[in-house]
Amino acid sequence: MSPKNLYIQTFGCQMNVYDSERLSHLLAARNYRLVEDPAEADLIFLNTCSVRQKPEQKVYSALGRFRGFKKRKPELIIGVGGCVAQQEGEALLRRLPYLDFVLGTKELGRINELLDDLETSGKRGVATALNGRVDPYASLPFFPSSSKATAFVSIMQGCDNFCSFCIVPFVRGREVSRPFEDILEEIRALAAQGVKEVTLLGQNVNSYGNRRPGNLGFVGLLEAVQRTGGIERIRFTTSHPKDLSPSLVEAFATLSKLCEHIHLPLQSGSNRILKRMNRGYSREEYLQKVLELRRVCPEISITTDMIVGFPGEEEVDFRATLEMIEKVRFDDLFSFKYSDRPHTRAALLADKVPEEISRRRLMELQAWQRESTSQKNKIWEGREVEVLVEGQSKTCALENMGRTRTNRIVNFPGKIHPPGSLVRVRIEKAMAHSLRGEASL
Ligand code: SAH
Ligand code: SF4
Ligand code: F3S
Fold first, then answer.
1. Which of 82, 142, 317, 327 could form a disulfide with 48 if both were Cys (CB 3.0 to 4.6 A apart)?
2. Which atom of ligand 2 lies at the shortest distance from residue 203's CA?
3. What is the sign, positive or negative, of the torsion defined by CA atoms of 127, 131, 135, 138?
């Protein structure tokens, strides 16, 4: 039987990237192979994100485009998965008559059942149970396969924090950690396939294992990954500042493979807004954690997420956020205009910030951060760093592209190194979003 073509479009965070890989693995067993052109596809799957309005709208415009494909090729199957699928469920099938199935965030394994129904009776299906604290990966066939130097590994699913702006707990369900051994088995298999760097994923990795009696917790997991032969670098994301433990801070000094980078979302620099966001820490506590991290690991790169225009945010709150950017000097920062999400408590707050004010604040904040990022990148000029080569540069195939341990992209010309090579590179110039260098002899 000739293979069928699968096109997956992934939106949102790295957890969706991981889930898309698992889904393509499941579908490979049904004789689907990945293609890069949706026009060639027999099955189009959109793995979606609903964290803000913008990514959600992107999903609908992509669906509008694929609807045209189906007019030309009626046997084309179109499915939606991920967080918008979880959020909307059956309503999506009602609204979009050309859609064939909806697959929730904890039901990846039911893709086979949905496709069987479609193939045998043409029945359009929905699988969106959130399943309490059940590990959604435990029932899937053994993964992984990878031809790359780097890989993501989800170590937990869901979130119990209920930050007042955030939809994730409603679309990913309650926090559940994967068993220690499942994760290690996956990482050992990745290492055997040549993967050199793993990024452990979760909405709040710091609380890994808290609800699994007898589990060793997140630092225990990091120590076990450190002992895995073949793995050279370990990263993780995301950390919640309130759960950043002293032992995790110490791990940056003691675990040689743990890269000197932490993504530590602050969200706002104002204590009043942090409280309304239900974040569970103050700006002073956050600053204290930054100091501790820099004490044990002076070179550590600290990146963050920030929201402007949260309901009730006054000019003084926004100034407090800018002040934190000045005080902490983040290596990089992702900033967002607050966006109302279904089910969240913030959506019910009355004092919404007008769009033009949020827009102005976002632009001002980004200007401050550009300054900070560029200063932080400049520090690397003239220094020699270790780069893990991931492939060739996007803009120039004659150059290598890789990352420093502090997660900066480095492009360097000369001999092309295979992905997975660790190369010493002398940094010549800091650009806005990357570094340029020359391989050292
Ligand atoms: N688990 C991570 C964040 C996941 S969502 C954490 O705890 O920080 C990624 C980022 O999207 C968040 O850090 C936040 O900055 C942003 N975000 C989430 N909900 C948002 C909303 N309703 N409006 C604007 N930005 C939002
Ligand atoms: Fe959302 Fe907060 Fe959970 Fe992060 S910790 S996923 S921001 S509820
Ligand atoms: Fe988006 Fe879902 Fe990730 S809402 S950020 S894809 S967990």
1. 82
2. 6
3. negative
